[in-house]
Write a sequence for this structure.
């Protein structure tokens, strides 16, 4: 064994391990195969697996001690801390009025322009209210498919408004929202909406929420409840006053000095600008020309605009801006932090990217029985390969998560290609290598691309509403579900006599004890409870006449088109076989 210890990361590519050990990659792959791991040169293995292979090949390895990317420690002088606006998220069940409430607050008409009346993206807006005091609202999605994005929304907020319709009460997404708010440690305010609708019952809403652990202040709890009508505006001012009062009690502070820190709330590829990201600043101040790391990408801020598309030179704590200048489109909810130079930002982005692999351990090949079993199970499944394109990263993440939830033990979704922006020729090429399906969610599709897809037999479908997309993919997966063989026992017969007809044909006589004996059915031959074989019934006879079936209590002759080793006293169990596709 080599005396020199070789250092490798927690997760390593097979080809990189071969390079580290200075051995042919074929040797590494061969040893992996011997240990039940089918891995290619570009697949990842974990440290434990690499250690086993290295030992077999005569090397000793150690794990890198680098702890990975961390949030920059910001030294803040208490004197520099300034009051900042509260960051507020609105969460709740679809159609309970989240967007309508924000419409009323912002005095805009966002809902009128949305597909299906559902908010499809995360956005951040800052408004002035209650005597020129600012509040930043994080507009979270409404459809249940955007659970992940809503969760991101709650995790960066100080206060979360749980909106519940007075005429509808607590629903599954209401409970889901409560979970996210509690997990995020965000202060909760409940807005009981639609109090002006027939059937509205704010008291019932309070009772239902109490059963979920959300108790109103007026009933001895610690949660503020405000009855509102987002449509008429009734109670909205009181809701805003409640938010301001709560934020003042919380004494929210931030240091506007120093490098900016924040989080990506939305991102996409924009024509003429390239990768753009909406960033919510949490500390420090962001300026034009600042060097940023945003998750696995980095860059220098070239342009910056607020929620009204006004160009701005800087962004202070609790404000949201859309920036350009990043090298790639960052993922939603990724940490954003400023650095003194682009080089430092790049180093941190590369570190984040490197350690992002560790989080995807389910994609790592391992030497263990569980992993081998998973490989065998996966090989028995059908795969639906799709290319997914979306207008923004938030939508792409939500779509992938929603489609992944459709996976079952028989059919799985495989993302052969994905990205944001318009559908391209390369997307068509990727689709051709799989099941020839491209899903475009609010992505631009030019006439030439439509024609190219048609010419190459690629199914390209555009969507504006996510639940329609999910429904269609479910139907595609249903077509790949396996056929289920269903046996139905129809009767039993006791063999009373044997008849010699020919060496290749067996005919027996017997009495149907229950059910029926039917031509074309199958017969399971049983002797003393043991099954000896299964044979197709070629004919049923009664008094020398061929009939379709003999019923319970009747004696009949049963013919088989093959020789069957059967004895008097044996039992024939008749059954029919039908097939149907398994359900999703």
């Amino acid at each position: 064994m080599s005396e020199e210890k070789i250092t490798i990361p927690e997760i390593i590519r097979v080809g990189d391990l071969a390079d580290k050990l200075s051995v042919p990659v074929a040797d590494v792959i061969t040893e992996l195969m011997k240990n039940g791991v089918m891995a290619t040169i570009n697949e990842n293995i974990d440290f434990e697996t690499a250690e086993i292979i290295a030992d077999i090949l005569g090397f000793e390895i150690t794990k890198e001690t680098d702890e990975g990317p961390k949030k920059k420690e910001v030294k803040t002088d208490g004197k520099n801390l300034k009051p900042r606006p509260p960051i507020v998220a609105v969460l709740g069940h679809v159609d309970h009025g989240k967007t309508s409430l924000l419409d009323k607050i912002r005095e805009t008409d966002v809902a009128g322009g949305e597909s299906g009346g559902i908010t499809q993206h995360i956005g951040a807006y800052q408004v002035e209210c209650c005597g020129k005091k600012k509040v930043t609202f994080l507009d979270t999605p409404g459809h249940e498919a955007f659970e992940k994005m809503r969760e991101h929304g709650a995790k960066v907020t100080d206060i979360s408004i749980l909106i519940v319709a007075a005429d509808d009460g607590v629903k599954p997404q209401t409970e889901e929202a409560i979970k996210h708010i509690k997990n995020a440690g965000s202060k909760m305010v409940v807005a009981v909406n639609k109090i002006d609708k027939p059937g509205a019952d704010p008291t019932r809403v309070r009772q239902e929420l109490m059963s979920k652990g959300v108790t109103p202040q007026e009933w001895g709890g610690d949660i503020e409840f405000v009855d509102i009508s987002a449509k008429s505006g009734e109670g909205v001012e009181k809701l805003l006053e409640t938010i301001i009062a709560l934020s003042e009690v919380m004494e929210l502070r931030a240091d506007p000095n120093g490098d900016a820190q924040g989080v990506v709330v939305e991102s996409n590829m924009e024509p003429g600008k390239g990768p753009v990201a909406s960033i919510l600043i949490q500390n420090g101040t962001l300026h034009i020309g600042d060097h940023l790391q945003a998750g696995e990408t980095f860059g220098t801020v070239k342009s910056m605009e607020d929620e009204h598309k006004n160009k701005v030179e800087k962004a202070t704590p609790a404000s949201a801006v859309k920036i350009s200048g990043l090298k790639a489109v960052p993922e939603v909810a990724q940490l954003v932090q400023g650095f003194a130079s682009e080089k430092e930002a790049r180093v941190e982005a590369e570190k984040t990217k490197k350690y992002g692999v560790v989080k995807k351990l389910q994609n790592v090949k391992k030497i263990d029985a569980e992993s081998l079993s998973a490989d065998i199970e996966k090989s028995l499944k059908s795969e639906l390969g799709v290319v997914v394109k979306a207008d923004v990263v938030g939508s792409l993440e939500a779509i992938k998560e929603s489609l992944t939830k459709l996976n079952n033990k028989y059919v799985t979704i495989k993302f052969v290609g994905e990205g944001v922006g318009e559908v391209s020729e390369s997307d068509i090429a990727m689709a051709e290598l799989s099941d020839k399906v491209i899903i475009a969610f609010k992505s631009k599709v030019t006439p030439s691309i439509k024609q190219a897809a048609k010419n190459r037999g690629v199914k390209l479908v555009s969507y504006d509403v996510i639940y329609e997309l999910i429904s269609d993919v479910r139907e595609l997966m249903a077509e790949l579900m396996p056929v289920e063989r269903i046996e139905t026992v129809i009767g039993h017969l006791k063999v009373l006599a044997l008849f010699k007809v020919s060496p290749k044909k067996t005919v027996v006589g017997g009495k149907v004890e229950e059910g029926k004996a039917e031509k074309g059915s199958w017969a399971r031959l049983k002797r003393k409870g043991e099954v000896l074989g299964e044979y197709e019934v070629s004919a049923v006879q009664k008094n020398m006449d061929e009939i379709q079936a003999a019923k319970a209590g009747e004696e009949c002759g049963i013919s088989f088109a093959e020789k069957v080793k059967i004895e008097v006293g044996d039992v024939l169990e008749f059954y029919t076989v039908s097939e149907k596709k398994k359900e999703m």
Notes: The chain has five domains: 5-63, 78-254, 261-356, 365-480, 484-581.
